[in-house]
Amino acid sequence: MVEFTVTILGCGSAKPSLRHHTSSQIVTRLGKLYMIDCGEGTQMQLMKYGFHPGQLGNIFISHAHGDHCLGLVGLLSSLSLDKRTTDINLHVPSDFVDILKAQIDFFVTHTEFDIRIHPIECQEPTLIFSDQHFDVTAFPLEHRVPCYGFLFREKAGSRHIIPECIQQYGISRTEIERIRGGGDFTAADGQIIPNEKLTTPPDPVRSYAYLSDTRPVMQYADLLRGVDLLYHDATYCEGDEELACKYDHSTASQAAEFAKVCGAGKLLLGHFSSRYGGEDWLLERALGHFPRIVLANEGLTVKITDKTDTGPVFVEWRR
Amino acid sequence: MVEFTVTILGCGSAKPSLRHHTSSQIVTRLGKLYMIDCGEGTQMQLMKYGFHPGQLGNIFISHAHGDHCLGLVGLLSSLSLDKRTTDINLHVPSDFVDILKAQIDFFVTHTEFDIRIHPIECQEPTLIFSDQHFDVTAFPLEHRVPCYGFLFREKAGSRHIIPECIQQYGISRTEIERIRGGGDFTAADGQIIPNEKLTTPPDPVRSYAYLSDTRPVMQYADLLRGVDLLYHDATYCEGDEELACKYDHSTASQAAEFAKVCGAGKLLLGHFSSRYGGEDWLLERALGHFPRIVLANEGLTVKITDKTDTGPVFVEWRR
């Protein structure tokens, strides 16, 4: 199964603390990088964890609160100083476009690449991006300002050809591609070998959903049904539901309940408040609602495996 | 002599690297904090080195390049989230005012304090700020955009009363203040004791100058004559004068030459380019021009002593 990971660059809420940077993460598939949110200091976090900013092609911003986007202008400025020539695409809520353009015009000068801004404005889940790796769907969350969740769904892969069949039937390279696409094979003696005898099914299509910042949004249980990894706002701890509701956030336990209702494979909790001095207590309470949870942390990489994998969440550290 | 220090929060040039943050530093006198420049991530650096952002009252921005000011909006936003109620003063070049206001209006909401913006625009050295600790003079540097140096000059202190005299002549508390201001004392028997017999002179007035980013500016040798500590742009190494000139910066050796011409007490080199992979070579060459140099580094605090102190530069680390 090809590499599909998410790495946390920052998972603190509102303002940075000594424990956590503000929100940003990197989704990778087969070495291609996608950024979600870009809080202050994200470009330093990218370097710290060994990512090359030059490899970024698409940045998705959930909403225009500073802790999710104040690192964007500095990052773009550094890309310009690096003499980047490849265009970069920014997918941002439409209310962020004017001030973003004003900042770029002022701070990001002498670029040899285009900064393409793609405004997001939708009331229903909407496909906003597609390439050879992913379809990305945006859907409005419940927060103080226009705020969007993102669902990264892998493109369906090809069927896998059974290596022994290639030699057995003398299948050419050109034919292999056709067979991976589902075609049968006509052997030299005219015999037709059906595709099912030559191939095994493609890898399951995996998906990753990012929901921050938001109140619980049960209306998306169908959209996110069976998502393999769910990142969810866990600003507050169980017991602080009133505060969570007042400030348009969620408790870790509400996030866990949502993961259960969606039938998510695994849950990644983030956007932590500094008020609790740590996240152990959030986790303990949330585990009462859903078993497969990992706490986000700077430098943590989570491999996105198929949801049928009910083992422990596989993580590794980049530091 | 009262505490008067400068602490480096960032001393890298153009874009952050794994070695250095972008420009920012804290000047302190008797516990009061002043910030000069505020590159991206400055609020995290403040926390890392144990400063409380709430104690900041005045921030001086040299120029509107991102590496000197992109941390300002995030810092202000955090001050607002901290429920600050004391006004804050931003001293910024006038060409930065419009975009700064636009960013503040968008990102820094629900403040319970005023953000007072004081535009700097001058062709000659001009006093831009004065309080009980300092007179701050701005002077235009030679850079691609309007850019100002800052000279922090301590307010003259009072004379020191000789402790033994207080008991000998029965001097009251009220009289002490008057005598520290220079007054004579009339004893109980009518005898007039001249001030010189009761006091020693005030501490020498110390000064700190910040010059970044700039080409060498020999025209300020008189203004900065005898400055106790000089922070100077040292983006390039001796031998790269052409590059330094082209991009409106200085070499470390040009900075050292300037320190010598000014008769500076000590020189603090900063705004390092990542091109050299380190600063040892810059220092070695610069020491050929001026003997008392320290390389800036994140977390380094330099105590500003009187220029008659020709010993080694006294520094300490906050980490």
Structural notes for this entry:
Two copies of one chain form a homodimer. Chain A has about 325 residues and is of the alpha/beta class. Chain A has helices at about 40-50, 65-70, 70-80, 95-105, 165-170, 175-180, 195-200, 240-245, 250-260, 280-285, and strands spanning about 5-10, 25-30, 30-40, 55-60, 90-95, 115-120, 125-130, 135-140, 150-155, 160, 185, 190-195, 200, 205-210, 230-235, 265-270, 295, 300-305, 315. The first copy, chain A, has two domains: about 5-155 and about 205-315, Metallo-beta-lactamase, Chain A (4-Layer Sandwich); about 160-200, no CATH class. In chain A, strands 6-5-4-3-2-1-18-19 form an eight-stranded mixed beta sheet. A seven-stranded mixed beta sheet of chain A has the order 7-8-9-14-15-16-17, with helices on one face. In chain A, helix 3 (about 70-80) packs parallel to helix 4 and helix 9 (about 250-260) packs parallel to helix 10 (about 280-285). The longest helix of chain A is centred in the N-terminal third of the chain and has 11 residues, at about 95-105. Chain A is globular, with a radius of gyration of 22 Å. The interface of A and B includes residues 48, 77 and 103 of A.
